[in-house]
Amino acid sequence: MSKEYLGEFEELVLTMVGILQEEAYGNAIVIEIKARLGRESNLSAVHVTLYRLEDKGFVKSSMGGATNTRGGRRKRIFTITNAGIALLRSMKEARIDLWKMVPQLKFNY
Amino acid sequence: MSKKEIKSPPQFALNILRRVCPPDLYEGIEGDLLEQFEVDVKVAGVKKARRRFMGNAIRFLHPSIILRNKFSFDLINTIMIGNYFKVAVRNIQKRKLYSFINAFGLSIGIAFCMLIYLFTMDEKSFDQFHENRLHIYRIEEKSFDTWQHDSPDPYRKSAWIQTGLKQVLKDELPEVVRATRYNKGETAVVRYNEKVFTESLTYVDDDFFSMFSFNLLKGNANKLFKNKSDAVITSEIAKKYFGDEDPIGKTLQISLQKEASFIVAGVIEPAPVNSSLQFQIILPQEHRWGYERNLAQWGNFNTPTFVQLQPDVDLVSFKTNLDKLTDKYMGDLLKKWREEATVPIPADAKMMEYQFTQLPDWHLKTEISWDKVSDPKYSMILGGIALLILLIACINYISLALTTSASRRTEVGIRKVVGAQRNQLMYQFGFESMMLVLISLCIGIGLVIVFLPAFNQFTNKGIELNSINLLQMTTVSTGLMMVVGLVAGSYPSIFLSRFKPALVLKGGFTSKLQAGFTRPLVVVQFALSAFLIISSIVMYRQMHYITTKELGYSKEQILVIPTHTGWNIEADRYVQRFRERAQQEPLITSVTGTSSSFNQGYSRYGYKIKEVQKSAYVYAADAYYIPTLEIALLQGRNFDATIPSDSGAVIVNEALVHDMKWTDPLNEYLNWREDSVGLGSPVIGVVKDYHFLSLEKNFEPLFLSMDKSNVGYLTTMLVKVSSNDLAASVEKVKSVWKELNPNKPFDYSFLDDDVAKQYASYQRWMNIMGLATGFAILISCLGLFGLSGINTVNRTKEIGIRKVMGAELSNIFILLNRQYIGLSLIAYALAIPFSWWVMNKWLDDFQFKVTMGWELFTVSVLVGLGIALLTVSYHAIKAAFVNPAETLKYE
């Protein structure tokens, strides 16, 4: 499973899902990306990515939590699966190994 | 959500998304969009928020989302089809009568349309089986007609041209590959051993067999007619004379001017019914009477000619070449005609020029008279009638469906409650319509198969159902049915699926829409039927008038017998011998002879009297002609065989006297032979005008003459027999004939039959109109029957209450039927002017016609009303007898 590749945005979104835990849904992810990275992303792009990740089995979704602001519509909450976590872990390790080898990037980890 | 401002996102974007997104994902998407919208409103204001919303929403139309839809719309529908089918069948069974009415009406409409389609296809298919059809042309002449010089189109166009033209065309025009002449219509006595019959002859040239695709069963097309004693016969003729023996090489004796021997060199398949060229026995052109003489005569037009041109021919240069030919061979003749004409001829009008028509166009070209030429107008009229009937059936269907919809209300309500969407309901009712239409289609095809022979008889065609046109027919009718089903079924289904469950299930849902819609439909139906009724009555009366009108001569019990002695004095002698012999027979009352009998051709002579062009129809006669036919002699006397000068005298009719402006005809002379020395033929008698032409024409000038060499011989014998025992009389005539003329076949027809044949085509049209009217009335009545029934059911409670309050049966009857009377009167008011106009145009064809008086229209109105009343009465009476106690128990 660690042989699969994720696109850059997919990786970003997957990570966000991992961060947000119970609050991971479309709008929250957009806001979070904007807050942490200062990067504008489109709601539809996030949605599409989430669905793709779900197809690949890295996240799973369920409905829950309707609020008034949403006109009574429930949210689709995404949670990361074990496969997702395993992938993030292997990606993190692979990246760090690579970055360690760049002379200008000194790691204290 | 804030209540104060109208800040809501654009709805239609949401609608689009709702349709397009997979349902399980949609809620989340919509919610996210709305949340985003709220935030944007706070941040940037409503307008901007709406714009951003639109932008976002549109971005969601991403393939990865849209394609997540399970495209299983069909899957959903096929699940329900089983149920729809069951329900549809149950519905049909529950209301057997109305379903039957609907299906039957539609199937009649379909059957008619299909029959008309077959008819039109057959008309179009004429002559299409020839391989070279696109290269074969018929040469025609268009000449200035001095007898019609002041009409808007003073040209006569005909297919008859000069005998010498064919060889000239082949020799001098490079475009012409093959050419043949074609003469048909002559009959002769044909004999092989003891088999003697009269056959029709066709004269052609050798190229005929290679130009046209008539199947030569025996014989070599390239060698035929090299020997001028060759004859080619059809397989039917071969069987008739030779049985199963091989006819090739055998000799047939054919009497042209005298008996000659011909050797059978080929056997050809008979021409199919849809061919403009027909033949029995084919002989070379050289045997035509007067062939040698006509070859050099460029002023005699008596031979149709066909040419086959090069595939890449330039028609313009062909025409130029033809014009050059005209100048070369006819230049002097045309100049002479122009100078001698007694009427003014415009300088730019050509006296004569050649034209040509391509083979596929022959059959429908009505301006050139030819066998079996058919007016394409007729196909259109028939098509119009068929569509009319189909329209009536569709109208029926819609109004019946609408009015039965009341009973489906509850079903619709419950289906909607359980979760059916509107389009599912529309689909269901559409499906029911389609099913009914399919049933009608099957019944319709069955009707076509059953009625095809009768239809063939009606239209004088030989249409068969083979695999090709069966396939075409089915495709066309399926297509037609899809359209009908859609059109007729869509309105009811839209209407039905609109019912709101809440209103419907609570009960008491009355829809006033029904009455409003069905009334105009009924009026239209009635108007159409009324039009057909009136037209049929007028046509029938006209036909009746024509067939029973006094013609001015007696046509009953007269046999018409060709003397078969050839064009010579023998004919006259034969008639005389027959007459003398017949005097011993009491059953034969009178014998005379003439050149051509009624409706068997005519002779018309033109001549100049004092520089004015005159014309008259001419019949050869003997002294017994006028008495046998009981023609009224107004002035003067009949021919007398004992007075020798009578052989040069003439008897004229009133029209001729009028035309010549004579005041004292018995002292006049008719110089029809343009004799510059003598005065001409003395007029010895004047007869009252009689209808020697069809009733479509007015009385034309006519004279009778005993002049043998200039007018003709008595080639047709008229024998009048006593009316007591017709069969025995015919037998007697036959035996006398055999006695006097054993070698010639005895062909006879009855004079009244011959005359009636002129109107055969009108008779056919009358039949078709009558049939169409019958069907239209039937369908309209079916519709009315259904409507009135439903109306009655709707008002059951009302009737019950009225009865309790004391209404009589007659009151209820009138109450229920009042509206229909009003509707039919409106319909008639619409139909009468229209049909009057149409029938006037039709009657214009006839010189002698009936008048369309008030009684005609009144009668048809009454008939129509009567029929309508009868139809609706059934339900009205039934309702009127119902016991109120039962009806008021409804609630």
Q: Which range best describes the helical content of chain A: under 10%, 10-25%, 25-40%, 40-55%, 55-70% or over 70%?
A: 40-55%
Distance between the termini of chain B: 48 Å
> Low-confidence spans of chain A: pLDDT under 50, at least 5 residues?
none
Percent strand of chain A equals: 5-15%
What secondary-structure arrangement, pairings included, does this model have?
The complex is a heterodimer of chains A (109) and B (891).
Chain A: H1 8-20, H2 26-37, H3 43-56, E1 59-64, E2 75-80, H4 82-100
Antiparallel strand pairs in A: 1-2
Helix pairs in contact in A: 1-2, 1-3, 2-3
Chain B: H1 11-20, H2 23-44, H3 46-59, H4 63-66, H5 73-94, H6 96-124, E1 136-144, E2 155-158, H7 165-172, E3 176-192, E4 195-204, H8 208-211, E5 216-218, E6 230-234, H9 235-242, E7 251-255, E8 259-268, E9 281-284, H10 291-296, E10 305-309, H11 315-340, E11 352-358, H12 376-404, H13 409-418, H14 422-459, H15 467-497, H16 501-506, H17 513-548, E12 558-562, H18 569-582, E13 588-594, E14 604-609, E15 612-620, H19 625-629, E16 633-636, E17 650-653, H20 654-660, E18 669-670, E19 681-687, E20 702-705, H21 708-711, E21 716-721, H22 726-740, E22 749-750, H23 751-757, H24 760-794, H25 796-805, H26 809-843, H27 854-881, H28 884-887
Parallel strand pairs in B: 4-9, 6-8, 15-20, 17-19
Antiparallel strand pairs in B: 1-2, 1-10, 1-11, 3-4, 3-7, 3-10, 5-8, 6-9, 7-8, 12-21, 12-22, 13-21, 14-15, 16-19, 17-20, 18-19
Helix pairs in contact in B: 2-3, 5-6, 5-14, 6-12, 6-14, 6-15, 6-24, 12-15, 12-17, 12-24, 14-15, 17-24, 17-26, 17-27, 18-22, 24-27, 26-27
